[in-house]
């Protein structure tokens, strides 16, 4: 029933009646949650809404197939769920992440929106719960306890496969291309941030390429666990109020519609009580974050300067770097990436605590698990894309600075050790450092070996590979 000013309508739930905005599809339970959870600005992520819509649509069709739902209602519920999937009803999902730990308020938000939209499609009165009821029809054969974790898994699989992996692969390929280009550039290596023996710039970029390759493999290894779905366990894992064929058919339909190799969880009780597969995936994301953090910091060190730092790499000058120092340009992409990585590491800590906090037959940290896991995937994918486009692809070596550092390094003396012994080589390095001369000059001054023999043994390019 709509009030006189057509601003609200009356809807009911098991606790009574509430005024609901007449231009919204949500119902009394969502409205009640809006009143009770004024916490933060974080909303349930769009990928989770996509997953919930996908589940509702699949379940409606399976219930019809099993003779549990009138085909006309199933088709209409499916059509309304399609609008949730496509995002056209996003304005009707206002709830914060900070709600009940099972995600019941969001599950009911989805149920109410789909029900009211389906009622509207069938020419009924929104809010009447007729001919489509949010619990009896849209939520049929389901519990929040199996729907919400299933949605988390589906949303993560989709975001990993379609958002993160293409961007991570592109970033890795950008590093690989630089590694190939810089194969012949010999430079000084550094350990403990101190001079070490030479390597090529290509080898340095190749190490970063391999880090990203390995990180991508770890992310991919997390997907099979997410493909095990809790759907069908309903409240505690027993499958109460479902048809014996329900779970298999829903999983098969979801697999067909998404194209993912989904399967039913081998133990529904375990599947409701913990989110171990999510935490495993988060660990892979955290490992990627540590790799990106290290790589971005390495690049920041090597690009430091331009005149008073290492200055071996030149980064694209994307924007002015200071409000007070004219002409300053900063490694902003490196900084953005490392901040993203810090957030992802923090998200993993939250996910660790949340997953460990399951009690008996249910984990009650579902919304924050969904939010943190999906944010990590989103941020890492975005950061990989931005880092590639605005930094890595535009990196140019400063060959003059690289050559200067290489020629001045005392650690080239390492090539002499097999020929004159460690102790004599150390004396050469110490003499050169104390007297401000070259290693060659030091070797001659100490009568360790003649200049020509020094030149034979100390060849930086030959030091970048096994050479005995």
- Topology pattern, helix = H, strand = E: EEHHHHHHEEHEHEHHEHHEHHHHH
Rg calc: 30 Å
Low-confidence stretches: none
Q: Strand percentage, roughly?
A: 5-15%
Task: State the main characteristics.
mainly alpha, two-stranded antiparallel ribbon, two-stranded antiparallel sheet, 468 residues
Describe what you observe in this structure.
This protein is mostly helical and 468 residues long. Helix content is 58%, strand content 7%. It has 17 helices and eight strands. It has helices spanning 28-36, 46-65, 71-86, 104-121, 134-138, 144-181, 201-226, 246-258, 268-273, 276-302, 332-356, 366-390, 399-408, 417-420, 422-435, 439-445, 451-457; strands spanning 8-13, 16-21, 186-191, 194-200, 228-229, 263-264, 313-314, 396-397. The strands form four sheets. The chain has a two-stranded antiparallel sheet. The longest helix has 38 residues, at 144-181. 45% of the residues are buried.
Layout of secondary structure:
Elements: E1 8-13, E2 16-21, H1 28-36, H2 46-65, H3 71-86, H4 104-121, H5 134-138, H6 144-181, E3 186-191, E4 194-200, H7 201-226, E5 228-229, H8 246-258, E6 263-264, H9 268-273, H10 276-302, E7 313-314, H11 332-356, H12 366-390, E8 396-397, H13 399-408, H14 417-420, H15 422-435, H16 439-445, H17 451-457
Parallel strand pairs: 5-6
Antiparallel strand pairs: 1-2, 3-4, 7-8
Summarize the structure.
This protein has 468 residues and is mainly α.
